[in-house]
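User: Show me a protein chain along with its predicted structure.
Assistant: Here is one chain, sequence first, then structure tokens.
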Amino acid sequence: MAAVWLLLYGLNAYWLTAVHKPRRSLRKQLVLPKLSPAREYQTAQVTASPSSSSGAIAVNNFDNFDNFDQFRLDKSFASNFSNYVLAVDPSEHYAVATEALPVVTVQLPIFNERYVSRRLVDAVCKLDYPRDRMQIQVLDDSTDDTQTLLSETVQEYQNKGFWIEYIHRVNRSGFKAGALQDAMPLVQGNYIAIFDADFIPSTNWLKDTIRHYVNNPDAKVAVVQTRWGHVNSEYSLLTKLQSTGIDGHFAIEQQARCNNDYFLNFNGTAGIWNRQAIIDAGGWHADTLAEDMDLSYRAQLKGWKVVYDNNIVAPAELPVAMLAFKLQQFRWAKGSIQCAKKLIGQIWKADLSPVVKFQATMHLTGYSAHPLMLILILISIPLMLVTTPETVSLRNSIEGAWSIIVLPGIFGPPFLYFHAQKDLYPKSWYRRIGRIFLLAILGTGISWSNSRAVFAGLSNTGANFRRTPKFDIKHKSDRWENKAYKIPLDATAWIELGLCAYSAIACVIALNKGLYMTLPFMVLYALSYGYVGGLTLWQSWQQSRN
């Protein structure tokens, strides 16, 4: 049963990759190098008229017309034209007339973020948006000196004429969901943008994103989600692998779900909500750790639509410590399983197509792959030990069936991540291929921690929130080991090293018994648990020295 689910999970990765963007017919590409930190460059669509000796080149989908300084035609295509015209399609341009801009409330939920909270407020106050139409709410639940830092920062910007408010809660009931819900009566805008403390939105982010509402006022859009960028993806191997995984989620999964009218989720930050959609869906609930996924699914069940824009990027800081990364993954895994318990019944009873229901189920239960991976390694040694020379033919049959069922599923996620890298980094994707294979080590290595999260989500609906600390890490020279917000070491790392030893024993058994199809998987498990458990202990030791 576990193998069948993993096969479905892998095959679905192929499917989402295949449908992640609309088919493009009779179109070629014009490469536009850009001076933009968010992307190396973006591609523009070139449409030619075969019946004319001259043609028009339509350039679409770029953030700012001034952000590129050159363009070139592929030689085989350029030779077909005697002249050309560079034209901007107004319907695709992000510009919105100032008088058409609505009032937007920007909410900044923060809890104990002394290193990055000021950075976030500064970035939001630099947004290119009329001050009288941008209400900023700093929702501070902090219990440390972040309170003083934020209250002083807000006062400073109030003195400069910004419409900004500092809201502090003594009772952290409901955690982030509670803070957002408690602030709803104070919201002045019909649209609500949300940023977590580790994000640094660009100046044009708000204008770029609000156009989805301004240009389509009757579309019944609940929320517009934008892509997460990375300010420190090159800091370490851990951040490189995280960025690869996040790129795959947004550039492929979210884009595929949006383009094909599947259910997709608001990712908790870097998005703009329609205030009425929040109200219609019943508001923010605090009964899961994934309040963002919960609300977006409830809104879609009410007939609202979630839009994802892959061309608008909001940079953020990735966790640099393995303990922080595992904590973040634990929260996401437990929260999504809680949402699955809460919502899957409603989804299958709703008037939706079977494909939409299936995709929603796969999405909500995606973290179930981790306990299944854990079960496979735990039963590997018993299964190999019962294989005797007299059962060689049966062993070969089982191994062949295993290969047919599991191998296609195993390569599904790497296939997805590979195409995400090609889409997002067309000039350097080939230098990132190694990250895709190493990501399998990270994903397998955290299967013990995430399995605990899945079982916690299945056993209760509580929301015991533990945040992921950030340290304002941008460059390789930045250090974090001597900073506050240290996560205490628990037994998880030792269990992971125990699983590493268990997997190494499985490698020896597989080699001695000639199970050469099984051996690579056992090696993967050993390397994965060794990397995750070893790095956890190493970083904890580094912190203990400071």
